Input
Amino acid sequence: MTTNNPYNFLPLQPTGRNENDTANTYAPEDMIKIYEQQFLIQVPEDKLTEFLPALKAFYDIDNHTLDVSAIIFDAIADSAIIYNHKIKVGDYQLLGGLVEEAIEYDEDDTSADSVEGEEIQAYTLECQRKFFINDIEIPYHFNLFIYGDGYSTLTKKDTVLEKMYWFVRGRFEEDLLDEAEDNDSLASINKQLAELGIRAMDLTTIDEMVSYVENSIIDDAMVDELNRLLDDAE
Output
């Protein structure tokens, strides 16, 4: 491994050499670190063509090693790389207990299971999920509305990650267009990210970040705990 390190690459210990003695080999967890650095290290535009050769020279690896590092990342990493940012889902927290709600039968509902005058049992619950963008923790608060076998969420609008969610929704959902002017702008969001030490994001990056969040806020462990709470409530 060369000592020339203009990009502050992480020092990693090789485990040996490959069969043809053309490149170093590394432990899987270190292969993930090599893969991440390809995207997360900020490189000046005039140095972009020099960056990848410098990374390969520093670790004494070849293109095959980089290909394998991508496969390992996809297989075992607990985070996602979205363009030049890394996002990881953290722990959840249920804030308070279930709040019982009552939904009256909708007389326009013609489903076979509906009975006129019947109240549908429902609950609301305040929740929080931690996320990490480039290893910086950002909380995400939402209210969970549980009714029958279904649920919906309502995101708050306090942290920058929550504001990113409303920014995306306001751009794409017709019924929210009138309220979109109340949402933070792209410039405002990037200013708040910069204050946290996170580089700016473009529209596509924010869209994919929000998609990752929406797919991650409720996991199997949280569902199991919710089911226990519902069983106790009944």
Notes: Helices lie at 28-40, 48-59, 63-76, 160-172, 186-195, 203-216, 220-233. The radius of gyration is 23 Å. The CA atoms of residues 143 and 154 lie 5 Å apart.
